[in-house]
Amino acid sequence: MRWSFLLLLVLNLFYYVWHQQQAPLRTKDVESLSAHKDAKQDIRLLSESTHPTRREASTAEGAAEQVCLFLGGFEREEEAREVEQRLLSLDVQSRVQTVDAAAGMDYWVYLAPLASRQASLRQLRELQARKIDSYIITQGDLANGISLGIFPRSDSAESVMQRLHDAGYEPLMRELSRAHRSFWVRVAPESRRLADDALLGQLTQQFKDLQHQLMPCESVASSR
Prior knowledge:
Radius of gyration: 43 Å
Distance between the termini: 117 Å
Structural class: alpha+beta
Shape: elongated
Number of strands: 7
């Protein structure tokens, strides 16, 4: 009986020691797993952050650099050249550029080309004999046709067409986009900081038609 009691006591002691050794290991495992989950959560939250990333900031900065300062728009190229030379003398890199903008519509009245140039010349002599201003078109898709004038107003063109109808002709009308050319000085992006308010004020006093605008660098297509 005594040996049974001793054996039971030894087994209890062994179980107690074994339990004390295993409990910390389980706690350590749980803490490690929790830390791993927290780390994964931190990574996910970082990707969802509302702060701009370095790539986005670089893209925004690149877009800002594409904005240029334009000085103009002059009716005469000579004025733009003077501004350009003034800026270059101050180490402000710049160049003159031209822009053609639509400025209304003209109306071209004409007679379609005939079968041959000789036939068109005979028709031209007939028109001139009737005191109708006209001339032969020498190039383009209407070559050998007869131009009867280009008019800034549609009612003027229609009046001429009516006169020709009454004389037995069949005139046609074509709309022509009227372009207005102006000259601008484009300041290079790297020199924009040099064209400060003081300099712009001096240029405005010297050149009364001077305007200054911030526009995308490629807004003005042609350069000279």
